[in-house]
Amino acid sequence: MRIEPSPDVIGATIHDADLTQPLSAADFARIETAFNARAVISFPRQHLDEAQLVAFAQRFGEVERIFLTHYAHPRHPEIMYVSNIRENGRDIGHADAGRVWHTDMSYTARPPRATLLYALEVPMENGVALGDTHFASAADAHDSLPAETQRRIANLRAIHQVAGRRARTGTGQGDQALRHEQPAVIHPVVRTHPYTSRKCLYVSEGECAGIEGMAADQALALIEELAERIVEPPFRHTHRWQVHDLLMWDNCTVQHLASFDYRWPQHRRLMQRVTVGGSAPV
Questions:
Q1: Does residue 282 belong to any structural domain of this protein?
Q2: SS (H, E, C) the chain
Q3: Residue 73 domain-assigned (yes or no)
Q4: 0.90 exceeded by the pTM?
Q5: Domain containing 27 — which CATH number?
Q6: What phi and psi, each to the nearest 5 degrees, are found at residue 273?
Q7: What range defines the domain where residue 118 resides?
């Protein structure tokens, strides 16, 4: 097993790891250390069935079931399909996942530690893979802020609501009834990573509807300012997909954004997504 860090501030590729087989404690420790340090790691050329995918995810913690149950695998409810494929007039998976910069499920009381995405079909055009996924380091973005700004935001708390400002972006419209069932939660604007203790900005324009004790216009302006800092080019990393890639990312350290340079039915995209439970942000 060989770990190759990317030249970016985040990202690494782990070569020659066979995730169809149980990992030794030593090999898993190397993978987990790389994950905590690099935040986004990819495993190329994996050939996983659903049980193997879930079993690998469980090494990182308890695997969750998400509220969009109509996109769940029929025999493995821990797996959600992310896909643009339509059957019988409906999407078989979450088709517009990732249209805005965000960190997964920040609108829950205990957002997931990790998200895993396994590529079964990748859209192609003229031999070129489409549908890149972009990541940005909220930890490096925080470190880049002036000390005065870090002090000013250190104890602020943001209101996260999946059916709030996200609805105004036009994403997830087909799931609004389910989204409105999710209550708003409050998390620190700056959270401490549970494994590395790094400080990470924890706001996004998609889910953050306000900041406790702050006027709405001031809160939204600050959220926008911090969200734009997170996604600045020096803090980014892009994953270019190949079939049978397994990609996983740290939802405390990074935000992500999907590319939608493909369309149904000319291009097919089919992914299996698993989320690993995390801790309440502090």
A1: no
A2: CEEEECCCCCCEEEECCCCCCCCCHHHHHHHHHHHHHHCEEEECCCCCCHHHHHHHHHCCCCECCCCCHHHECCCCCCCEEEECCEECCEECCCCCCCCCCECCCCCCCCCCCEEEEEEEECCEECCEECCCEEEEEHHHHHHHCCHHHHHHHCCCEEEECCCCHHHHCCCCHHHHHHHHCCCCEEEECEEECCCCCCEEECCCCCCEEEECCCCHHHHHHHHHHHHHHHCCHHHEEEECCCCCCEEEEECCCEEEEECCCCCCCCCCCEEEEEEECCCCCC
A3: yes
A4: yes
A5: 3.60.130.10
A6: -115, 135
A7: 2-276
> pLDDT averaged over the chain?
93
d(CA 257, CA 134): 5
Judge whether 144 lies within some domain.
yes
Query: Comparing C-alpha atoms, which of 44, 220, 222, 39 is closest to residue 122?
Result: 44
- Cα–Cα distance measured from residue 180 to residue 245, given in angstroms and rounded to the nearest whole number: 33
Task: Answer yes or no: is 281 within a domain.
Answer: no
Amino acid identity at 42:
S
Average pLDDT over residues 236-260: 98
CA pair distance 163, 180, nearest whole angstrom: 5
What integer is the mean pLDDT of 117-143? 97
List the structure tokens of 131: 């549908």
- In single-letter form, the type of residue at position 11 comes to G
Structural domain tally of the chain?
1
Please identify which residue in the block is written with the tokens 């890639």.
Answer: 245
pLDDT one-digit tens code per residue, 163-212 = 654 455 555 545 555 555 678 999 999 999 999 999 999 999 989 999 99
**Strand-pair category, 40-43 with 12-15:** parallel
Average pLDDT (253-273) is 97
